[in-house]
Amino acid sequence: MAFEITGTGRAIPSRRVTNDELAKEKEIDTSDEWIRSHTGIGARHMAEEQVAASDLALEAARKALAMIAAADAAPADAEKAVAEAALSVDAIVLATATPDFLVVPSTACIVQDKLGAKRACAIDVSAGCTGFVYGLEIAAGLLAVSDSRKRALVIGSEVLTKFTDWSDRGTCVLFGDGAGAVVLEKTSLPQQGTGKRGILRTILKADGSGAEHLVCSHGGSRNPLKAGETIAIPPHIGMNGQAVYNFAVKAITETVAEILSQEGITANDVAWIVPHQANARIIQAAARRLKIPEEKFYLNIEEYANTSAASIPIALDELNRAGKLARGDLIILMGFGGGLTYGANLIVW
Ligand code: UT7
Q1: How far are the Cα atoms of 86, 180, 319 from residue 314, in angstroms, in the given order?
Q2: Protein residue closest via CA to atom 45 of ligand 1
Q3: Tens-digit pLDDT profile for residues 25-47
Q4: CA of 36 to the centre of ligand 1 (A)
Q5: Does the active-site annotation cover 218?
Q6: Phi-psi region at 165: left, alpha or beta (left = phi > 0; alpha = psi -120 to 50)
Q7: CA torsion sign, 117 to 142 to 4 to 309?
């Protein structure tokens, strides 16, 4: 039994904001030169006020389903084909740090309803920027334990620009909004041995001792907003940039080395490493330490900035639609972020 990605999709808000435009709009004391040289970011896409994580997730999910509907020789009516494909979804796993609602309901349930995925169970995953890597393994687990579940949607969706302190220039320039989704199918092909397919192995790790380095400290049960309280800045993500930077380089270096060694392969056997897009310098530093050419790491941070749990599925969809993934290619998805969490999936495309 293998767990294979058969469809991908992404949703990118149309409003593109360059570094210079952001600095002007939000009155940030920064420059395009600083942001580019310290992060590799050139622009980000920002969701409109009325757009929530579920809206972007829904669009990405529909595109991923449209891909499999087309592969299944879809009827002429594309919308009908997507609606039919939605009825075949058994599980929706949605990774986000910026859900539609605090407490309940889950963002996955909103997507389940709007998609018309009537028979799907639906859960959110809170694992920061590693959410998609965790989500794939959770979805594979849901499919593995039940004969009746065959198809899952795994989505990463974020509207981080709504949880940003625009007066913190070390953090606010980093984030962008977007969503990516994949269809994960249980197939009868082998997961190991000759002809192996799909997710070969996954490493998931957590280090809660670093929780304070990336934290939205207001609004949860630790620090609830109180009736009548006036807050200067809405709930937002605070970050110890240096600590997260050091953690991230170590997490990528160790996890990529570990998953290669567990599988008994080298980086030469891998077509792409698709890392969470947090900072191009983090990826370059890890590539140097691993002695893997930078070109093997797919980077699109220049266009989208850091979209947390959405960054890996967005990158995967870009690669897929650009025809840069061949059947049989080995791919490593590598996530790291709030929690602290980190992990990787090794996949045969
Ligand atoms: O998804 C996972 C979450 N996040 C990450 O992975 C981010 C990890 N951390 C980082 O990427 C980097 O630490 C940052 C990009 C956040 C910061 O880069 P840095 O090279 O570590 O800069 P720094 O914080 O050490 O600051 C260097 C200087 C400071 O000025 P002084 O004290 O040297 O005069 C900052 O005030 O750069 C200044 N600075 C800025 N200047 C212009 C910080 N932010 C900005 C800015 N524009 N936006």
Answers
A1: 20, 5, 9
A2: 170
A3: 999 999 999 999 999 999 999 99
A4: 11
A5: no
A6: beta
A7: positive
Residue 16's Cβ-count burial label (10 Å; 0-12, 13-18, 19+) is middle
Kindly report, residue by residue over 145-181, the tens digit of the pLDDT.
999 999 999 999 999 999 999 999 999 999 999 999 9
Pocket of ligand 1 (CB under 6 A): 30, 34-35, 38-39, 129, 169-170, 173, 214, 239, 241-242, 244-245, 248, 278-279, 282, 306, 308, 337
Examine the residue annotation and report whether 109 is marked as an active-site residue of this protein: no
Average pLDDT over residues 199-212: 98
Between strands 2-11 and 177-187, the pairing is: antiparallel
Q: Which of 137, 4, 9, 100 is nearest to 61 (CA)?
A: 9
| Ligand 1 centroid to residue 259 C-alpha, Å | 30
| CA-nearest residue, atom 39 of ligand 1 | 170
Select from 238, 246, 305, 299 the least CA-distant residue to 273. Answer: 299
Measured in angstroms, how far is the CA atom of residue 316 from the centroid of ligand 1?
27
The C-alpha angle 278, 280, 281, rounded to 5 degrees, equals 105
Tell me which residue has its CA closest to atom 36 in ligand 1: 170
Cβ-in-10-Å burial (0-12, 13-18, 19+) of 229 comes to exposed
- How is residue 91 written in tokens? 């599980």
Instruction: Determine the Cα–Cα distance for residues 5 and 94; give it in Å rounded to an integer.
Output: 15
pLDDT of residue 73: 64
Torsion over CA: 140, 313, 346, 242 (sign): negative
Q: Ligand 1 atom closest to Cα of 170?
A: 44
Closest atom of ligand 1 to 171 CA is 16
